[in-house]
Structures are given as C-alpha cells and as structure tokens.
Amino acid sequence: MLLNRASSGERWRVRPDGPGKVTGGLAYLTDMTTDHMLYGLVLRSEHPHAHILSINTDKAKKLPGVHAILTYLDIPGLNAYGIAHPDQPVLCEDRARYVGDALATVAADTLAAAQQALELIEVDYEVLEVVDDPECALLPSSPQLHPGGNELHRTVFSRGDVDQGFRDCAYIVEETYYTPRQMHTYMETEGGLFVPGEDGRLTVYSPTQHGFMDRMQLSRILKKPQEEIRIVSSPIGGSFGGKDELNVQPYGALLAMQTGRPIKIHNSRWESVRAGLKRHPMKITMKTGVDAAGKLMAHQVSLISDTGPYSTLGAEVLNFATEHVIGPYQYVHLDVKGVSVFTNNGMSGEFRGFGGNQAIFALEGQMDRLAEMAGMEPWFFRKLNMRQSDNLGPFDQPIAMTEGAEQVWEAIAKCPLWLEKEHLTRMSSSGDEPWIKTGIGAAFTMHGAGLGVGIPDPAGGRLELAADGKIEAVFGYEEFGQGLLASLEQMLIEQFGFGAKDIRMIIGDTDVVPDSGSTTASRATAMMWKSLQKLKAPFSGQLLQRAAAVLNRPVEQLQLGEGGIKGTRENSLLLSYKELADAAGEPIRCETSFSFPTSSTERVGAHYMYTYSAVVVKAEVNTLSGRARVLQQYHVVAAGPVINPQGYLGQIEGGSSMALGFTLLEDSVMEKGHYIARNLDTYLVPTIEDQRGLVEVEAIEQLPEGDDYGPRGIGEVGSVTLAPAIAAAIRQACGKWATKLPVEPSFLQEAPFFLGKG
Amino acid sequence: MGMNIQETIASPLVWHPQTAAEAWQLKQTYDIEAVYTSGGTLLRTQWESGISAMPQHLIDLSAIRGLNELRVGEAGLVVGGQTSLQSCRSNALLSRHFPMVTEAIRTIAAPSVRQLATIGGNVASSIGDSIAALLGYDAEVIWFDGTREHRALLSEWLHEASAAKRGNERLLLSVLLPFEESLGETPVSNGAEDLTSQMKRFGAYHKVGRREAFTPSVVTACINGVLTCSNVIKQIRIALGGGQTVPVRLEGLEKEISGADVDGQLLRHVYDRTIELFEPREDLFASAAYRKSTAANLIVSELWKAAKDNTKQL
Questions:
Q1: Which of A595, A616, A641 is the last residue of a domain?
Q2: pLDDT tens digits for B196-235?
Q3: Residues 391-450 of A with CB under 8 A from B
Q4: Which domain holds residue A427?
Q5: Do residues A218 and A345 both lie within one domain?
Q6: Tell me, what's the pLDDT at B10?
Q7: Does A276 touch chain B if contact means CB atoms closer than 8 Å?
Q8: For residues A1-13, average pLDDT
Q9: Half-sphere exposure (CA, 13 Å, Cβ side) for A551?
Q10: I need a surface site. Which of A517, A587, A682, B103 has the fewest CB within 10 A?
Q11: Do both A381 and A297 map to the same domain?
C-alpha cells in the first residue's frame, strides 16, 4: 500500500503534540527557567590532545556573581561516564583528548559572569601530538590515548575460505568506501534545568533517550542513590541518537548539588558542535567476487571506524556495521574484520542507522559494481544472491523469519520509477542543457532492531484508570519528534476503543514511569505495541468486570468505548470512565515488563528482528557544477503493521532527508583535531529546496501467520539505503562511481562536451 | 535556542543618523570603534564566529532619508542602499529591466534574512552575491565622502573598497543601474543590413553554492551580451565572484572576444582564459581549481547556448 493521507483515511490523525510544536506554544525542557537559578557553563580544552599541568581557579572564584567553580577535585563519585564503558572524564584531571573535553564548570548569577569566570580560569597545558588518523593511531609508534591502547574494539566474522573463494570467481570487485562525520543537527541543542530539592533530591529536566540510564550514570558521578535523582526527559527537540549519552547533565547536576541552587545550562550551537557526538566516519574496504553465473562466492571486508576520544557506544556501532556489511546476501566464503579506533578527533557515537548507513553504502556499492561487471541487471543480480526467508541471519544466527526480503524485492522490481531506468539508458544527452544528466539507482537493506544479543534490553509499560477517570498510559519512552505519543495514542484508540480525550499519556519521568528501556534502535513503537498486547486482556478485563459490578450486568454484554463503557448491543454510553473510577474497589492498574526478543546465539550484538527496505532514486548531475540533486524517491519498507501512517511516512521521509545530507552535503570536517565547520552557516544540512522531489513510501504490512512480534522498527531504516541508491543513479547519469561521501562536486564536474578533448 | 554569550556582554551603542552627513560625522568621531550597519545580517555572523569583534558603536543607516526606495533617475534605475533585498526582489521595475539582479537576490540567504539585509550592505561587503549581476549591467554606485556625493563604476569602487584595509571610508548611498540600450531603438539601417532585428541580447546569472538554497556562494557568474544572427559578439560583459572572492569583470577577455565569431575555437578560448584570469579565494569547502572550472563552465555554456539558438551547427 502506498502510504499517504488519502490511503490512510481516518487513520491519518493530527498528532497530539502537533499544535504545541507548530505554534511554538510548547515549552521544551531547555526553555525552562526558575527563580533564583544560576547559569552554568563548561570550560573545554583548547587543544585536542594535551597534558593538563594545572588548573587554577583562584582569580575566577573571586569574580562577583560566581557561586561555584568545579574541577575534577570536586566530583564526589566516579569521574567518568559512558553508557557501555565509562571512560569519558566528567572533568579532566591530567589529560585532554579532544576539543570538547571539559576541564571545569562554573555557576554564576548571569551568563556574562559565568563566561568571564571561564576566561579567568588559568590552565597550563603541555600540548601533545594529535592522533587524527585512525590508521596511524593503530601503529605502534602512535601516542596511546588510553591505558589499553588505541583500539576500542575489534570484530571478526568468517566462514569458509575466502582465498579459495576468490580463486573460483569469474569477476572480483575491490573498492574502498569512505563515509563522513555527520552531525545530528537537532534543532534543540543540549541543555536543561537542574533543581535541588529541600529533601535532598535532585530533579533533572534534560533531554535524553533513556532516563533510567542517565539516572544510573548521574548516581555514579554524584555518589547519590538513584532514588534521590529524578530525570524528566521529554519533550525533546530532536535527538537522532545524539542525546542518548550524557552531555551537559553531569555539570548541571554537580553545580546544583554544590550550590544548592537551580542551574540552567544550554549549549550554544558552537558548543554543541564542539562537544557533541557525530556519526562514526568509516573506511570500508571490500573485495567481493562472483562466479560466471553471478553467484556470490567470496566477500572480504575490512572496516576501520574513527570513534574519537572515548567509548560511548563505539564498540556497539562497530558490531552493528560488522553485521550489516554482510547484509541480506548469501556468500559461500566470508571474512569480515572491523576495528574501532580512538583518536583525538571529535566524539563519535550513536546516530540513527547506527553503523548500518556506512555498511550499506559500501555493500550495495559492491553489488552494483559486480552486476555491471558480470553484465547483469542490478536488481536481478541481487535477487540471485539474496537470502531465502528461512535462512539464518548475517551472523548465522536464528532470526524472526519473514518474507520481507522477497516482498521488498518484488515491489521495487515492479515500481514505475525502477522501470523508468531502462528507458533512461536509451535517452541520449541532448536538449537545451545537455550537461544535465539523469540516472536511476536502487539499494536494499535488512536493518536490525533492538540492542542485540548480550545487552540488557528491557521493555514494558503500565495502564491505569486514574482517579479523575483518565486512562493513563505510562511508558519510560521519550518523545523527540518522532511521533511516539501519536503512535501510542493511536494504538490505545484502535486496540482498546478509547477516545483521544479519555487518554493521558505519561512518559519521560523516572519517578513515575517503569523502566521500558531506551528509546533507541528502532524499538520503542514495537515495544509499546507488544506491551499493549500483553496488557489488553487483563486491563480491559478489569475495567469491564468493575463496570459489570457497578451496572449489575453480565460482563459479556459490555465493551470499552469512547467516553466509557458501552453495551455490546446498544452503542449508548452506560458508564463513563470517571464514574468507573469513582466506584469503590482496588485501583485498576496493569503493568508488564519483558525484554526485547533476541536471537539464541552467543554472538554479541546479533539481531533477531529485522526490517527489510529498499529505495529507488532518480537523480540528476549538473556536470557544469558537478552538483547532484535527488529528483524522486520510491521507498519500500516491510516492517509489519503500520501503527501510525503519518508517523511512518514521517520517519521514512525524515530519515531519507538525513541520508541525503549524508550523501551530498554533510561532513564535520576536522583539521588536526579541530572542527572547521563550527556553526550551521558552514555545516550545511539539506533545506526543503534540496529535497523537493516526490517521495513515495510503500508499506508492506503482511507478516507470517503466527508471528506475534508485531510492528518492526522504522525509525532508522529510511536513512540507510539512500546513499548507495544515489551513487548508483550518479553512475548511470555520468558514468562515475562515487566511493567517498559526501560526493564532491569537483569529482562529478566535467568540461562541456562541445569543447572537445584537451 | 542556545544562549548566545555575545548577547549578554555589553551591547554597542546604536546611532540613528537622519542624513548621510550625520552618519559620516559619527564615523569620523568614533573611527575604528564604529561600524556602519544596515540589516546587520552579515555583521552578526562575523561577530558570532569571531571574525570581527562587536564594535562599541553601530551607525544604523536605515533612517537616512531617501535611501530605501527604487526610482527612475536620468541615468537609470537608482536603487537606494537601504532598500531591503526583499523589496528589491519583488520590485517590478528591477525585474523587468535587470532580471539578473532579481535572480541574484532571489538566491541570497533566506526570506527572514532578506527582510533585513539591504542591497547597500550586500554591495558594501564587497563579496555580496548581487555584485556579479550588478557588474553584468555595468552598475555604478553613488557614495559620500563627507562633503559631497560621488558617482563611480561599481567595478572601480570595489577595487578601492576591497583594497582599503581598515573599514570602508566611503559611505555607499545608492546603486545606479543604467538602462540598457534597447535593440529595437537603435538607429535602423535599411534592407538586408537591418541588424537590429537580427541581433539578440542574451544573459544569465548563476550562483553555485554548497546546497540548493540558503547557502554561501562558491561561484557567482554573470554574462550579458549581444550577438548578431551570424553569432558575432557585438557586446559582452563577464563578471565572476563567489565566497570570499571580490567579484570582478573579466575585461581582458571581454576585449579579446568582442567582434569575434562564436565557434568551437572561441569557446575553447573563453574557457581557457576564464580559468587563467579568474583568481578566486579558496577555502576548505571548495578549492580555487574547482571555482575556476565552475566559472569557466558556466560562462562558456551560456555562450554556447546563445549561439546554438542562432544556428544548429555548433
């Protein structure tokens, strides 16, 4: 089904959080202020790599209006954070490893005083050699950034004997692909309000993708029991993975506890660029061969990932990329090696797609090159080598089997945009502007959801009839613009029969919500769906039984409806939810808790549930300027039932617009460990003008009979396949294979044909 | 929005002179402590990035009478320096007679910026994206030296302004766009020699940026000329700029090709000479070599297009 407003009918709903966001009426957490608050700022390292010989705060402390200046000496607990492996100092003691490293933090009456105080802090550095190239970082002669060396993580996966495999190949493609250091570029930069309570508790109003993880990490840093910390974390003005890790929270929390006053911190865009996470730049070398019939015989991959100075989820991103460079194809012989390397560049970390974007750009590039070399139609070539529905996953692990790969392949094969490709090859470059050349390309992926084997991945939620008669849906997930609330509301309406006005949704507050796990890895909607499936019978049952008692009617004659309890025969309201809540009895409340389904394998990071998707792209290259433009996109996504059509479409369109930036525009260029583009006037993300063309999304909802996993993730997959599809379109347009993203205009530029050679 | 540190530091004094003379006097008084400003859109980015410090005095030129309108003068269309880019963009006279200027302004920044930014500020910056188009029409500027108004060719004024190390001592008042001689109004010779009906004007302005909209330019290119039916160049102006490059006319090349036939050899010459003569400033986002070849491609393809319409032989 093509997803759009018309095809969605009444399922196309206005988002509950829409009006507030569109009108600007909604206050984000970083808009909050309070009486007597102080402003917090952070002093960051001047150098990407240096010994810190001394930090002198004497002069700064004397400045009027300054209430606290903290250094590493003032941290009561663990001076480190990191979701997977806490190795990033909250405040550096003796060494700075990147330009975002924090050395001191200041609280003052005004921002100006805080700024002045930062300037008065005297730091003695001994500048060290900058390690800015991951390959050089692996040499024994390189300065070592951590006690364990410069290797964060290595991955290996192999099967058969690739050397033998390559000997049996008729065609072999060997290529190296480079992907950029993309920035999340959320509209709301990192920040928050940190309020100490009279009872000794601390309330943190600051965006994050996993409130309980922040609470645990802050508890370690502050040496304060987790129960004494409350994290309020939604609404969020965009995250895309970028606010998954702690950012300003340790500073706000430390300053609030030290001064006993509320602290407001809000990064400027400059500071956000400097300190924040980016997508891992990767260099991926692939050697892939097929036999004379076009069957994949051998696939050899070497990945090197620039993880920057500290871990965060760098190892997990590499695991993901390692799995996805194998992808949905079958090989006789396989040899994949990956390494994630510490450098003094910016912090790399979690970002929508999570290593899949880099992997699929390379893998699909290989497929297109091999097809061309073997003289085969590229989509047919993929079909020839694609997994069968009952095959194991990329790591030979059991997975939830669906027909997704086949279904997506078929849908692309017959979509009008793909059929147009053949027609384009017959067009000669003519017309008034023959330097504008057009091509069509497509790419495929299977994208894992959930955190994978070996990582705690809790899920769950709670339904409750509140005293005021509202149906409360309580989940530990976050709304960062993706439409989580809209999806939750829609499920409650469609699955239970409630009206929108009957529902109160509560998320993002660790004092109230159960730990539903993180809002990452394309998992939240699927886990809410699963929770509601588990809660439906017990919660509905309790409501109806209470109603039956109040109304003195058999429970079989009652049903849930908009506004309250209705009869199964008559559609009139028999009892409002408020009346039901007023009736005496135990509170009606159901909670569920379970884990994201995982594969029965030992392989850490291996996935169990996958979304299959592909895109066809039409692009044009103006060879005078070398600039490429995307003209049209047709996405096919097989991810089970569509929970919220508008949200689904938004996720695919939004993901694809990020991918367009990744492919054609975005790179946080660094020079010797310093960012060159430090604001949005030089770091350019796509505007609406860059993505004008038609975007169509076909959703394949069918799942195998008996599959009760429900909807698969769609949060990331829209951002994965566009890059290789654009690269294939560029190839058809002007004959060039792009191997480095973003595609450089100078690479595609040509002198006009009428000048002849010379 | 992140808290902007600069906004919390002492703001400059803002002066609102009513006349050019008052403005001039303020600049003399505060000298390097003062900066002329109109919309302030470019200055703001410079303060924020640390390229220049926020001055102690801002001399706001927007209140000076008579500078925020377009009017037809004796010598052409006079565009007051304080006219916002948005007003310029939507002005019918400008788009009828100088469509390439309208096109250039259309591609500058974004609507909110164009509401504030002025044509005077765009020109006075020496690197504004309207300049290449203005040069393509042989625009002049009217400026004030403290006692009287002067008129100068924009190309010469730019040369002076960009050479001045410390600020621009010349206060830009207006931009003057001379009306182009209509081909229909030139004296007509008789019979087969009737050139006017057989000559055509051609021109184009292109901005190549790093994305499709709201982007700094990498290259701006303008070509404006007259071609006979047999593809002889009767008149030609070529102007190039982009990024931090002060836009220039390629007058040497213009002279070389005036009166020449547009053929394969000439196109090659134009391409090669553009690359030779144009000296763009590079940055980490685009090399000088790329800027040169882009400029050459844009110019030569427009010439090819104009000539191709006359004959199908090229």
A1: A595
A2: 558 999 999 999 999 999 999 999 999 999 999 999 999 9
A3: 432-433, 435
A4: 282-452+602-754
A5: no
A6: 65
A7: no
A8: 96
A9: 24
A10: A587
A11: yes
Note the pLDDT tens digit of each residue in A529-557.
999 999 999 999 999 999 999 999 999 99
Domain that holds residue B257: 198-310
Based on the fold, state whether residues B172 and B207 are members of the same structural domain: no
Q: Are residues B152 and B72 in the same domain?
A: yes
Question: Between A and B, how many residue pairs show a Cβ–Cβ distance under 8 A?
Answer: 110
CB neighbour list of residue A378: distance below 8 Å, 6 or more residues apart: A367, A368, A371, A372, A442, A728
Structure tokens at A498: 């409630």
Domain count, chain B: 3
Residue B163 and residue B96 share a domain = yes
Among residues A255, A275, A295, the one where a domain terminates is: A275
Looking at the structure, tell me whether residues A257 and A303 fall in a common domain.
no
Per the listing, tokens 């038609």 go with A694
Contacts of A627 in chain B (CB under 8 A): 208
Cα angle, residue B111 at apex, residues B107 and B117 outer, rounded to 5°: 85
Q: Is A356 helix (H, G, I), strand (E, B) or coil?
A: helix
Which region among A302-316, A609-623, B153-167 has the lowest average model confidence (pLDDT)? Answer: B153-167
Asked if B109 reaches chain A (Cβ–Cβ under 8 Å), the answer is no
* Across A376-399, average pLDDT: 97
pTM: 0.96
Same domain for A591 and A611: no
Indicate if A301 and A432 belong to the same structural domain: yes
A377 Cβ under 8 Å from any chain B Cβ: no
Residues 6 or more apart from A123 whose CB is under 8 A from it? Answer: A43, A46, A52, A54, A55, A56, A103
Q: Is residue B183 part of a domain?
A: no
Could you tell me if residue B27 is inside a domain? yes
Residue B191 has pLDDT above 90, yes or no: no
Touching B: A residues 500-519, CB under 8 Å: none
Distance CA B250, CA A9 (A): 60
Q: Which residues of A touch B9 (CB under 8 A)?
A: 112, 115
Contact call for A755 and B211, based on CB within 8 A: no
Residue B192 lies in a domain: no
Do B230 and B159 belong to one domain? no
Alpha-carbon distance of A397 to A385, in angstroms, equals: 18
Number of structural domains (chain A) is: 3
* Whether residue A448 is found in the same domain as residue A462: no
**pLDDT tens profile A326-351:** 999 999 999 999 999 999 999 999 99
B166 has a pLDDT exceeding 70:
no
Residue B298: list chain A partners with CB under 8 A: 624-625
What's the CATH code of the domain at A227?
3.90.1170.50
Beta-carbon separation of A681 and B216 below 8 A: yes
A686: contact with B, CB 8 A cutoff: yes
Check A690 against B212: CB less than 8 A apart: yes
Tokens 């191709």 belong to residue: B308
Alpha-carbon distances, residue A20 vs A235, A383, A476, A684, B246 (angstroms)? 11, 46, 22, 27, 45
pLDDT: which is higher, A319 or B186: A319
Q: Do residues A712 and A605 lie in contact, with contact meaning Cβ atoms separated by under 8 Å?
A: no
